[in-house]
Write a structure and sequence with these properties.
The protein is mainly β. The protein is built from 2 helices and 19 strands. The strands form 5 sheets. An 8-stranded mixed beta sheet has the order 12-11-10-19-14-15-16-18. Strands 8-7-6-3-9 form a 5-stranded antiparallel beta sheet, with no helix packed on it. A two-stranded antiparallel sheet has the order 1-2. Strand 10 and strand 11 form a beta hairpin.
Length: 302
């Protein structure tokens, strides 16, 4: 497939933590799927005031846009992309500390084909609805006919495979695009979490725990995948689990499960690099983050 020049669009905004169970941050109910399943440099990450429109005209200096693709695909014949999927054909994010945009994408109809490369064939499909979320996703690049988005699921399983944040391309015709007024910015070294919007920075936390060296919190851009209360996780004291789209760079699963998703959640110990990758917060902080809608970009900086 060749590229043809036509008006294109670019965009810009932003993106934290690993689900674990048993009070340590991994996705236990994702184990049986009963309940849950368990900096940027300032210039690089969107401005503190997200743009009110998701796209801006590309400049002549930018790459030629990808050609439109109107092929009809049977998405039922394509692998499902969700929190549990492991698909070697889906790329890992090649610019984890780069910007995202103020746009969110959600498939129309039953779902949308996902492309590793707009010049190739689809490698999976993203459903419109899924019990564990991950279907409203942030746009990190945009053209007239295509958007590049962050995705749930993994390309590979650690330690042999790369479990990092995945990306893919969706056709604009297959999705509805909305805008988000905010993103979350986490600084592990500074021990700060902010919600950034046009109104400025809202400090959510100045005291939290993060992943220990053997099970680090993944850094880079990701997004709020799913938020839910899991009563059987007694260590959360009834506060929500805010699950993210990224999984552990070190663990295949947690506590016998087949996922190692990152999350924000309550835990009594909230200091230093002590977790299995999740970010441990106090009640007010996690309750505030739980108010953010699915797809909200999150950026975790070292």
């Amino acid at each position: 497939m060749t590229r043809r020049p036509h008006p294109a669009a670019l965009v810009a905004v932003v993106a934290v933590g690993v689900l674990a169970a048993s009070g340590y941050g991994a996705l236990a109910p994702l184990r049986d799927l009963a309940a849950a399943t368990d900096e940027p440099p300032a210039a690089a990450a969107l401005s503190d005031a997200p743009t009110s429109t998701p796209v801006a005209q590309a400049t002549d200096a930018g790459p030629a846009p990808y050609a439109r693709n109107d092929t009809l695909y049977d998405i039922t014949a394509l692998p499902l992309i969700d929190v549990r999927s492991v698909n070697p054909a889906v790329p890992v994010d090649d610019d984890p500390m780069g910007p995202v945009t103020s746009s969110l994408a959600r498939p129309l109809g039953a779902g949308a084909p996902v492309f590793a490369d707009p010049t190739g064939q689809p490698v999976g499909h993203l459903p419109r609805d899924h019990h564990y979320g991950g279907t409203t996703v942030p746009v990190v690049d945009a053209q007239a006919d295509w958007v590049k988005v962050l995705l749930p699921g993994r390309q590979g399983v650690p330690p042999e495979g790369n479990g990092g944040q995945t990306v893919g391309w969706l056709r604009v015709a297959d999705v509805e695009l909305t805008t988000t007024p905010q993103y979350v910015e986490v600084h592990l070294a500074a021990n700060t979490i902010d919600i950034v919007s046009a109104a400025g920075r809202e400090r959510v936390s100045e005291q939290f725990a993060w992943g220990k060296p053997s099970t680090p919190t993944p850094t880079g851009r990701t997004f709020v995948m799913w938020t839910t209360v899991v009563p059987e996780f007694r260590y959360t004291q009834g506060h929500p689990m805010v699950y993210l789209g990224v999984q552990s760079p070190a663990m295949a699963g947690f506590d016998g499960g087949d996922v190692a998703v990152t999350a924000f959640h309550y835990y009594r110990a909230r200091e230093g690099d002590t977790s299995f990758g999740c970010i441990y917060l106090d009640g007010p902080a996690v309750d505030r983050l739980a108010q953010l809608p699915a797809g909200t970009p999150v950026l975790i900086q070292p």
